[in-house]
């Protein structure tokens, strides 16, 4: 577990002196591969041997943290691999002007490292420090390019998430306050494993207050409506590989922090209070995102609103509280990560091929560039929740779990919102895929840049028809972490 | 609680009450000041009173980790962050102060109402405290609200940052008054993050001026929809 926690920060340190040399990108890819390999090994150990605690209780790995670490590792590797081609192309163009020139790889791995530490943190104080650390590194990446839009997005992102995270700190203080009479002062009172075990004896009204503050605080970072306003700006202004990491891995990490508080609150107060709030904010996020997705012409903003929608769906799934729904929600984290990373990266290729970020400039892509067109269609199938994409399976599990939990009203509302989103995506995607190609369509990235995309697409389609047993065990155990 | 004989002559709860008063009043002073420089001065006083409260608690309880945390607060919040903010202000070229959304008089009135609400609601939530820090909790909740108000009522980017750092101070005071602070390692991590965060925000203010030729953050409206 310790090697996993230090692998990405170490890569970041290595990348700093190598900036602007030809070694930076290979080191970056190797580091990402190491993170993914260590995360998979950890998942293997956890599913076989149960939860681990390390570093004197500061770090722990249960199935939920192992699952999250695997998501971060996979998205990180795909993004770093793609960045090898994409960022090289960006740095040639005049778009290149950046504030922190050449520090891209170091910042990227700083972000991955803080996400991994947040995934493995057992101490809620360390969790806070790691999540705030991810805000700081990602704010620099959001504002990477020297253009007004990026400055504005980074400013809003840093301000709003700083306020959110300050409320998250208050939540941490309150949980600690309610635990001190039971377990005494010192870092033991902040350990999630200790708190989860002692939860039934914690003082209910402080736990209630702490959960609400954590939901608002970490929920801001997770992009739950109505605290999502910074998200479309930040995710659309960041360099494309970073957008993928933000949407697929950072949102999942912040949401998992909320779920850690939910697990404590559910053990203390029963599942209704915190679960009800998760269902409410989940539905609200889907409802807020859906209309924007119908009219959005900017591809990356469309994907950002889609992230708000999918985060809402996961919150809804866990809030429903039925084991099947929780399983579906956690699987949705995985499938959404694959589809969204693919969608962002293919968008990066299309944007550099056409020189435009808007969907109406991309029409006819299937005819003009069949390979990119196929990847674009697969990403759309995934995001819309069509079979055989993995999101079909995870959404289906979630909704079935909702019915099993006896919440047909919530399920009906979710289906209606998913249908609106589907209509929006179908409209945009058919227009782009079937339209007439524009004259100047030239894929400027080498064919090798599409390799990580094909891998993502294959995984997305495979998981839609076949859930490998190790992944299923991991998901089942992770669902039991949230609700035993 | 075993009081240290060292300052037994001091009516201790009075001393802490006094400092809590300085803490709240400095935040309110920031709200009534139009100039960003005055807001930064108010923040400095806010941080110094926070450090003094923590130091007093350390002396009274004899807990060394609180003393170390107090020293770190003094260095980071009392010295380094104000310096970063002043430097960002000095670099700023725009001298015209944008009108706040709410007039100064009305701001003072609204913040007074926020303080009353915070004091009454804290008592409902936490009951009458018995510790020496009973007065600090409502003060911290009130200051949280005042800091938030400062953030949303100003237009200058830097004044918003001052609102944010006052809010963070208030949450620190809540931690001190509820649990005598958090474990030292956690506090060190938190302080480091806050310090770096403020440095980044100060840097962003500079970039905003360079890109938009104004420090009025409400004019950042190129991204919509």
What does this structure look like?
- The complex is a heterodimer of chains A (484) and B (225).
- Chain A has 484 residues and is an all-alpha fold.
- Chain A is built from 19 helices and two strands.
- The radius of gyration of chain A is 21 Å and the shape is globular.
- Chain B is mainly alpha-helical and 225 residues long.
- Chain B has seven helices and no strands.
- Classes of the chains: A mainly alpha (484), B mainly alpha (225).
- The interface between A and B is large, with 51 and 39 residues.
Notable traits:
heterodimer, A: 484 residues, mainly alpha, two-stranded antiparallel ribbon, 19 helices, B: 225 residues, 7 helices
Give me a quick take on this structure.
The complex is a heterodimer of chains A (484) and B (225). Chain A has 484 residues and is mainly α.
User: Can you count the helices of chain B?
Assistant: 7
Overall pLDDT confidence of chain A: 92
Order of helices and strands of chain B: HHHHHHH
Tell me, rounded to a whole number, the average pLDDT of chain B: 85
The proportion of strand residues of chain B reads under 5%
Number of strand elements of chain A = 2
Give a count of the beta strands of chain B, DSSP E runs of length 2 or more.
0
* Radius of gyration of chain B, taken over Cα atoms and rounded to an integer in Å: 18 Å
């Amino acid at each position: 577990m310790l090697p996993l926690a230090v692998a990405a920060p170490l890569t970041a340190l290595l990348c700093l002196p190598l900036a602007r040399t030809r070694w930076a990108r290979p080191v970056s890819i190797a580091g990402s591969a190491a993170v993914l390999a260590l995360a998979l090994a950890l998942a293997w150990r956890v599913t076989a041997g149960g939860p681990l605690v390390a570093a004197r209780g500061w770090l722990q790995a249960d199935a939920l943290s192992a699952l999250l670490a695997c998501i971060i590792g996979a998205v990180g590797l795909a993004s770093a691999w793609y960045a090898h081609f994409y960022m090289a192309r960006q740095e040639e163009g005049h778009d290149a002007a950046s504030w922190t020139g050449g520090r891209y790889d170091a910042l990227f791995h700083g972000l991955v490292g803080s996400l991994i530490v947040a995934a493995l943190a057992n101490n809620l104080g360390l969790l806070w420090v790691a999540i705030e650390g991810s805000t700081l590194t990602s704010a620099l990446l959001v504002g990477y390019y020297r253009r007004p839009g990026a400055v504005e997005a980074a400013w809003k992102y840093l301000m709003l998430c700083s306020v959110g995270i300050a409320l998250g700190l208050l939540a941490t203080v309150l949980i600690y306050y309610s635990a001190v009479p039971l377990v005494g002062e010192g870092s033991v009172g902040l350990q999630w494993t200790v708190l989860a075990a002692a939860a039934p004896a914690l003082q209910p009204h402080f736990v209630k207050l702490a959960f609400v503050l954590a939901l608002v605080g970490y929920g801001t970072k997770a992009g739950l409506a109505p605290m999502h306003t910074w998200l479309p700006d930040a995710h659309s202004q960041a360099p494309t590989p970073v957008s993928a990491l933000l949407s697929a891995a950072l949102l999942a990490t912040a949401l998992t922090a909320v779920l850690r508080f939910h697990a404590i609150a559910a053990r203390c107060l029963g599942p209704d209070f915190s679960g009800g709030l998760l269902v409410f904010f989940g539905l609200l996020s889907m409802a807020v995102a859906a209309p924007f997705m119908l009219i959005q012409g900017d591809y990356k903003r469309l994907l950002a609103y889609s992230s708000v929608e999918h985060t809402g769906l996961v919150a809804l799934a866990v809030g429903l509280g039925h084991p099947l729904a929780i399983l579906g929600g956690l699987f949705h984290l995985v499938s959404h990560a694959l589809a969204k990373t693919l969608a962002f990266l293919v968008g990066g290729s299309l944007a550099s091929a056409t020189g435009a970020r808007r969907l109406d400039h991309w029409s006819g892509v299937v005819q003009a560039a069949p390979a990119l067109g196929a990847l674009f269609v697969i990403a759309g199938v995934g995001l819309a929740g069509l079979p055989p994409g993995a999101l079909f399976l995870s959404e289906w599990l979630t909704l079935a779990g909702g019915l099993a939990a006896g919440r047909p009203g919530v399920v009906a509302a979710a289906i209606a919102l998913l249908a609106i989103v589907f209509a929006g995506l179908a409209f945009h995607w058919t227009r782009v895929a079937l339209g007439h190609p524009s004259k100047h369509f030239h894929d400027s990235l080498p064919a090798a840049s599409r390799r990580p995309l094909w891998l993502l697409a294959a995984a997305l389609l495979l998981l839609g028809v076949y859930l490998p047993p190790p992944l299923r065990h991991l998901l089942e155990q992770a669902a039991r972490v949230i609700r035993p | 609680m075993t009081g240290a004989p060292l300052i037994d002559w001091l009516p201790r709860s009075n001393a802490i009450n006094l400092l809590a008063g300085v803490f709240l009043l400095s935040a309110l002073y920031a709200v009534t000041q139009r100039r960003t420089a005055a807001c930064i001065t108010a923040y400095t006083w806010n941080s110094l009173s926070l450090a003094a409260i923590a130091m007093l608690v350390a002396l009274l309880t004899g807990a060394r980790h609180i003393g170390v945390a107090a020293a770190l607060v003094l260095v980071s919040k009392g010295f380094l962050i104000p310096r970063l903010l002043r430097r960002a202000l000095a670099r700023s070229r725009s001298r015209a102060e944008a009108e706040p959304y709410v007039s100064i008089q009305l701001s003072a009135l609204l913040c007074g109402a926020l303080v009353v609400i915070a004091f009454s609601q804290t008592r409902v939530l936490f009951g009458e405290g018995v510790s020496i820090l009973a007065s600090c909790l409502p003060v911290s909740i009130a200051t949280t609200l005042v800091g938030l108000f400062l953030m949303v009522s100003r237009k200058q980017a830097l004044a918003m940052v001052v609102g944010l750092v006052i809010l963070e101070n208030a949450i620190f005071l809540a931690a001190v008054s509820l649990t005598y602070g958090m474990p030292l390692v956690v506090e060190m991590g938190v302080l480091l993050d806050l310090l770096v965060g403020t440095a980044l925000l100060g840097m962003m203010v500079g970039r905003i001026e360079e890109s938009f030729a104004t420090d009025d953050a409400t004019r950042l409206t190129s991204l919509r929809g």
